[in-house]
Amino acid sequence: MSPATRVLIAPDSFKGTFTAAEVAAAIGAGALGAGVDVDLAPVADGGEGTMAILVDALGGRTETAAVTGPLGQRVTARYGLLDGGSTAVIEAAEACGLSLSPAGELDAEMASTRGVGELLLIARRRGARRMLVTVGGSATTDGGRGALDAIRVGGGLGGVELEVLCDVSVAFENAARIFAPQKGASPAAVARLTDRLERQAAQLPKDPRGVPMTGAAGGLSGGLWAALGATLRPGADYVLDAIEIDERLSRSAAVVTGEGRLDEQSLQGKLVGAIAARARRAGVRIHAVVGSTALAPADARSLGLASVREAPTLADMKRAGRDVAFELTAGSISSHTHQPFQLTPMEI
């Protein structure tokens, strides 16, 4: 089919419910059923799922290792190897993710990034000379102390080139205030964690306070930046470049992106905002399919979204994909379709 009837499907995961690949497949099935061609491009922003997408896009492989989990338990974590093993992809959530904390046992003060440091050491022993650390979805707010301690005890990384793919632009000192409540921290715990991060910042070789992206994964990115000289990169743009999103946009009439929750964080380096910026530059209409939204219409307009549809289930995602395709081919959404979770659809 021609670009006039092709839709690029590029969603993030709906954290805790569906992977990016599952979301893309559901939306794509709906669009195909409405008679358009689709290009499935599941994506990630540096958080959970980033490793798998990079390994798939760049032709690598995954390995597993037993490391320390967020609360001290042993967990089996995956890591990726690219370029014949010379580059490793370490996903922080594999070692210290929220999903690894037993139900009801979230503890933002005790949770440690030690397992991330162990994975870095394992990859170094496997011969990796360059490491991509994808952060996001962690249960931790330790400023990277656990990882740094593990690396120090393990003898260091020996001059490895370290790049951290960040899913937020938050600075180190704000990590507890913004993210710790969702990791089980009470207001009193947030205050203690913030004080701890401030003290850690003053002790590190470089001060990460005020530096964008140093607050990702509870300050893990800042610890790696300050102590090991890591380069911090916006994860969303890194992944979008890896999957050649700009070239794929040039071959599409519209793009559908999405994430589990559309909110103010979507304006701060998250995937929807990054894709929207590229779609605007390419002159391609962009639609969002999300699990839920708390974003004001004015903010959605500022992102350049043509519509926002709530779709918390795979069936709803399939309907949303069909409706976007109908809009593309017929110029408007079919009036006879049932759209119980659609937002207006918030046309801009």
Give an overview in words.
This protein is of the alpha/beta class and 348 residues long. The chain is built from 13 helices and 13 strands. The strands form three sheets. The protein has a six-stranded mixed β-sheet with strand order 3-4-5-6-7-8, sandwiched between helices. Helix 1 (20-33) crosses helix 13 (314-330) and helix 4 packs parallel to helix 5 (145-153). Helix 5 links the parallel strand 6 (130-134) and strand 7 (161-166). It is globular. It has helices spanning 20-33, 50-58, 92-96, 114-125, 145-153, 175-179, 187-203, 216-228, 235-242, 245-250, 271-282, 297-303, 314-330; strands spanning 6-9, 37-40, 61-68, 74-82, 87-91, 130-134, 161-166, 231-234, 254-257, 261-262, 285-290, 292-293, 305-310. The chain is 39% helix and 19% strand. The chain has two domains: 3-43 and 244-330, Glycerate kinase, domain 1 (Rossmann fold, 3-Layer(aba) Sandwich); 50-236, Glycerate kinase, domain 2, CATH 3.90.1510. It starts with 5 loop residues before the first strand and ends in an 18-residue tail after the last helix.
Q: What's the count of strands? A: 13
Count every helix, treating DSSP H or I runs of 4 or more residues as helices.
13
Strand order of the largest sheet: 3-4-5-6-7-8
Helicity, in percent?
25-40%
Q: Point out poorly predicted stretches.
A: 332-344
Spatial shape: globular
Largest sheet: 6 strands, mixed
Name the assembly state. single chain
Number of domains: 2
Q: Give the N-to-C terminal Cα separation.
A: 27 Å
| Strand coverage percent | 15-25%
